[in-house]
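Hey,
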Amino acid sequence: MLQITYTDRFKKHYKKLERQDKNLFQQKLRLFIDNPRHPSLRTKRIQGSDNLFEFSINIDIRVIWYYEGDNLVVLIDVGPHDELKGY
């Protein structure tokens, strides 16, 4: 089973999300823990990166993350897709 940890940046941006987006994130996180490749997450490797990935919360909100070892996932950032293009 995957373990999840959060960067300070993720925590800061998560606090700024609307309540409905936070609720949806919690639902998607449960799916992610059970199956990181669940179709509704639209998980993909970030283009041009070897170890950064993203999954979708909704059409606009994305989560950026990477694996640390076999079972630990570090959630780096969360927010609108346009704001996360720098990764």
